[in-house]
From TrEMBL:
CDD domains (alphabetical): arch_bact_SO_family_Moco
Lineage: Bacteria, Bacillati, Actinomycetota, Actinomycetes, Kitasatosporales
Protein name according to UniProt: DMSO/TMAO reductase YedYZ molybdopterin-dependent catalytic subunit
Limits of the Oxidoreductase molybdopterin-binding domain: 32-180
Origin: domain of life: Bacteria
Pfam families documented for this protein: Oxidored_molyb (PF00174)
Amino acid sequence: MGQSEQEPLQSSDPRLPPGQRLQRGWPVLHYGPVPRFKPLTWDFQVFGATASADKHSWDFEGFNALPRVTVRGDLHCVTRFSMLGSEWSGVSASTILDLVPPADDVTHVMVWAEYGYSSNLRLADFADPRTVFATHRNGEPLTVEHGFPVRLVVPQLYAWKGPKWVRAVEYMRADRRGFWEERGYHNRADPWSEQRYSYQEEPGDGPLR
Ligand SMILES: Nc1nc2c(c(=O)[nH]1)N[C@H]1C(S)=C(S)[C@@H](COP(=O)(O)O)O[C@H]1N2
Ligand SMILES: [Mo]
C-alpha cells in the first residue's frame, strides 16, 4: 500500500479526548461471560429512593413500548480506544426519571446489569439528555455481545459507566462505588479531563473507599 493511501492523522480529530485514539469497527469488551437473554423473566427495575417509595418494573414488552429517542454519541474506553459518531436509539434516562420520579434528596444512581456489574453516576450525568438506555446502534438492534436487549450509553463519560445488559436503576441518597469504581477506576470518569484512575480523585469526587 503506497504512502498516498495513508490515513490522515486521526489524533487531530477534535472529538477525541486527550490520550485516546480512533478505533475502526466496534470491539467487544467486558468482564465475565455474555449473559443469555431470558425474555419471560427479564425485567427492568427502578428501586431505591423513589418519590413514592415503591419499586417499579417493566417487562420486556413494557420496556419496548416506552417513548424513544435517538442521540448521537461517542464511546471512549479507558483502554484508550474511542469509537466516534454512533447513533444510539432507545429510552432516554430522563424518561425513566419522569416516569419513576426520584425522591427530592436523591443525588446519585447505580445502574445494575446482569451478573452484578454496576456503575454509579451523579444524578446530573444520568439526567443529561445524551444519556440513553440504548437498544439500537445506527438503526440496528444491539447484538448480545454489545448488550442486547439494552445497554446504557453515557457519551460524556468513559464507557465503563455504561453497563451492557442493564436490569435495574437504583436511586441513591449518597454516592457509592460501582464495579470498576471499586477496583481502581475514577469515580467520575470525565474523559476530557482524563479522569481514569481513582488515585487521581480530588476531595469531593467520590465517597471514601
Ligand atoms: N455489563 C457490563 N457492561 C459493560 C462492561 C462490562 O464489563 N460489563 N464493560 C464496559 C466497558 S469497560 C466498555 S469499554 C464498554 C464496551 O462496550 P462494547 O463491548 O459494546 O464495545 O462496555 C462497558 N459496559
Ligand atoms: Mo472500557
